[in-house]
Amino acid sequence: MGRNNLQNDRLTLRASAKHDLWLHVKGEPGSHVVIERGRAERIPESTIEEAALLAAYFSRARDSATVPVDITEVRNVWKPNGARPGFVLYDQQRTLFVTPDRTEVESILQRRADAKHDEPTPPAQAKLKERWT
Q1: What are phi and psi of 39, to 5 degrees?
Q2: Is 10 exposed, middle or buried (0-12, 13-18, 19+ CB in 10 A)?
Q3: Which residue has the higher pLDDT, 45 or 115?
Q4: Dist. CA 21–CA 74, nearest whole Å
Q5: Cα 133 to Cα 9: distance, rounded to the nearest angstrom
Q6: Cα separation of 36 and 21, whole Å?
Q7: What single string gives the DSSP state of each residue in 51-74?
Q8: 100 falls in which pLDDT band (50, 70, 90)?
């Protein structure tokens, strides 16, 4: 998830694969959210709904009762020539309507943090840590 315009550009235009799912609140400034598809043919609807909640919460529409969030594959997102950082255009989207809820968002973010903490350290990173400690 991008937290500013430069992070949004990096996430969407450089770090994402063309078949990953991209989400953004419709018609308002906000974070770009990308779901990495990997080799999965389908992404669970619950994952898409959680990502849509994050996109809605980290936007100017945070306090709205119902927020439209557009979803498309990254390959359908592009940056117009000369556009400012963070600004993109997209097509072939579907729209999901969500209600931002702080407690749900905090729960999602906590689960993400716990999952990252529980991941084993790859051997290359383990060697690097040993050399510099």
Answers
A1: -95, 0
A2: middle
A3: 45
A4: 6
A5: 34
A6: 7
A7: HHHHHHHTBTTTT-SSEEEEEEEG
A8: very high
Contact 9, 79 (CB under 8 A): yes
pTM: 0.83
Please give the Cα distance from 57 to 55 (Å, whole number).
Answer: 6
For 10-34, write each residue's pLDDT tens digit: 999 999 999 999 999 999 999 999 9
DSSP 3-state assignment of 32? coil
Q: How many alpha carbons fall within 13 Å on the CB side of residue 61?
A: 22
pLDDT: which is higher, 22 or 130: 22
53 vs 126, higher pLDDT: 53
Q: Which amino acid is at 131?
A: R
DSSP character at residue 75: G
d(CA 77, CA 73): 7
